[in-house]
């Protein structure tokens, strides 16, 4: 995941539960990013929960639909690549 405000190039886990989806990115065995995405909000372990629209505005692009990031991580495809050159965003998900 590479955006102007988030830069992570490591491996991690995507866990989909009934009430939320969790993305955990690890570096050298240590969690460096944890996102919990609920139906109406997204939470990061380093700040309080916020709406998807405020998360998009701060870290992605306000042009994206609210649940864009949640839907991207919930895709079941082996490889997901999202590239937005205008906003300098690259999100690459490869499932083992």
Overall geometric form: globular
Assign a percent range to the helix content: 10-25%
Strand content: 35-45%
How are the strands of the biggest sheet laid out side by side? 1-2-3-4-5
Structural class: alpha+beta
How many beta strands in the DSSP annotation?
A: 7
The overall average pLDDT, rounded, is: 91
Largest sheet: 5 strands, antiparallel
Order of helices and strands: EEEEEHHEE
Q: Work out the radius of gyration.
A: 13 Å
What is the helix tally? 2
What is the straight-line distance between the termini? Answer: 17 Å
Uncertain stretches: none
Plain-language structure description:
- The chain has 96 residues and is an alpha+beta fold.
- It has one domain.
- 16% of the residues lie in helices and 42% in strands.
- It has two helices and seven strands.
- The chain has a five-stranded antiparallel beta sheet, with helices on one face. Strands 6-7 form a two-stranded antiparallel ribbon.
- The chain is globular.
- The two termini are 17 Å apart.
């Amino acid at each position: 995941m590479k955006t102007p405000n988030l830069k992570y190039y490591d491996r991690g886990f995507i866990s989909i539960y009934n009430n939320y989806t969790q993305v955990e990115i690890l570096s050298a065995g240590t969690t460096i990013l944890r996102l919990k995405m609920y139906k109406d909000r997204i939470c990061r372990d380093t700040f309080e929960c916020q709406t998807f629209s405020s998360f998009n505005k701060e870290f992605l692009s306000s042009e994206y639909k609210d649940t864009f990031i949640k839907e991207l991580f919930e895709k079941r495809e082996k490889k997901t690549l999202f590239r937005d050159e205008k906003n300098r965003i690259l999100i690459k998900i490869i499932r083992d």
